Amino acid sequence: MRPLVARFGVLALVAAVACQAAQSPGPQPSPSNGSPAAAASPSTSPAPSPTRSYPAREGTCAMRVSESFTLANDMSCAGDGMVVITDNVTIDLGGHTLTGPGMGPQTWPLPQLDSVGVRVGGHTGVTIRNGKTQAFSTGIYFIDMESSSIESVTTLRNRFGFYIHASKKITVKDSDVEFNIYGLHLQNSDDCTLVNNLLARQTYNSPGGYGLYLYASSRNRVTDNTIDSNINWGIWFSDAKENVIFHNNVVGNNPPVSDNTEGSNVWYDKQTKEGNWWADYKGKDADNDSIGDTPYPILGPGGMVDPYPFVAKDGWKTKRRATIDHYEPAAARPPRGVTIVALVGGAVKAMRPDATEAGDLLARDSKNVRQIAMGTDDRTVYSYLDRLVVAQDVVTGEAKTKQNVTVDGVVAANRDGHSVMVVGKTGVEQVDLATGQSEYFAYHGSPESLAPSYKHNHVFVATERGIDLLYLNLGGRTPYTIPLDGAPTAMVMSGSGTRIYTAIAGQRLVDIVDTEQYAVVDRIATDVIPTSLAISPREDILYVGSTNGVQAVTIRDRAL
């Protein structure tokens, strides 16, 4: 497809008439020993070993622990509760509670370590068990640890519940992680076991609010957990590979799950062909084997599925017959039509890739459009012209809403489906198109492009210095800027909210930003200088607009 004038100022993809062929990876070949799926063959938890008792001891705040003991008192601390300083130590909290001074200020993407209930680093054979940590920056923090465990610990109202960092062979079991900002966080940690935990009701949502987060962590085993009513993701895997996840109850999260690693993580037990219970699963169980007859799709560009979802909570505990295997990988289907919407020389154009001529989406005499944005329904385009926002249905061509705005700037559609925001050098205006009501927020910057956050209360703003995090609920504060490989010219967020794709000015390059790490985690080299971007609904294809037209690049293998 070729542009009608020199360049595409803005590019959008209409998903309602432009869905890509859905392809679901099937079960992988039988694994060799040592692979995550091989480790997943037992579907029951190991039998508990006898619990050894240790001498009772009064605890004091910031105590340095070099030998095993049982805590004899509750503790209320202004800083750390305990710091372990040697290997092979067991701290039995004896049912007592460690209380901190509060969760402390936001430090994301760095850990918050102003106060830690139990802090351990660089050791092996450490066990923390049988008690509670609450109101710390981090409930329990492991870094550079090996062959250690957290057992029967409740952690509440911390910024991080449990933070496992750069560690391996860590076990977290029989524990409750509730009402924190970040629940159970594994980063650069491998070969861990997470079993029989409650990860529920993590509350704050910018960022955070997830039950379980794995970042750059591999070969971990996640079984028999309940992941319930977290305000954002129940399970979020980002660059996490070769993990095995089955026999978990996932309910009431928004969204339930996201996995951006294609063909790597295994969402079922390969031996028993049993997966997880997803509360929003809509499939049927016609043969009464407790397993749904159709797979459960895992959100994210990985395109993964749970092929054997349970139809009832804890279904593996009541299942009485072997799984009847109905699963077949989805056959390749011809791609459905794609409509590309582009801003070309002040006019909004719509065109199919196989067409010979683009059509005018707005009236032919509307040549002064400055910005366009796609709505969350993937068929409404918002055009900004002369401080007027026009909402138009791409399929029917109907102009549904016209709304005057006072801020002169860059427009984006909010993820609530009924409002837009305009960010300019002097502030932000958020307009509810259903009611016509506007809200105003402070902002001082030079926006190039916008991406409203999946978490609803902040927006990513591309500026010359990087990507600003603009917090609307904090009066327009921008406490953090994500550094990039250069000044951004265009930006688009994936539908799952986990990635931002950013075109870099004057370079044949697109930076890929992780929205939880607030960092560039990958890059896509292009053979053109991008001026606009759009992403497919399944997050598998990036559309790159340039002076040469529009290219479609597969994200997995970078094929054009």
CATH homologous superfamily name of the largest domain? Single-stranded right-handed beta-helix, Pectin lyase-like
The count of DSSP E runs of length 2 or more, i.e. the number of strands, is 50
- The portion of residues assigned to helices is under 10%
CATH architecture of the largest domain: 3 Solenoid
Q: What is the mean pLDDT?
A: 85
**How many separate structural domains?**
2
Largest sheet: 16 strands, parallel
| Structural class assignment | mainly beta
Tell me the Rg in angstroms: 25 Å
- Number of helices, counting only DSSP H or I runs of 4 residues or more: 2
CATH classification, class level of the largest domain:
Mainly Beta
Task: Explain what this protein looks like in three dimensions.
- The chain has two helices and 50 strands.
- It folds into two domains: 8-18 and 339-554, Methylamine Dehydrogenase, Chain H (7 Propeller); 72-318, 3 Solenoid (Pectate Lyase C-like), CATH 2.160.20.
- The radius of gyration is 25 Å and the shape is globular.
- The chain is mainly beta.
- 1% of the residues lie in helices and 41% in strands.
- It has a 16-stranded parallel beta sheet that branches. It has a nine-stranded parallel beta sheet with strand order 3-6-9-11-13-16-19-22-25, with no helix packed on it.
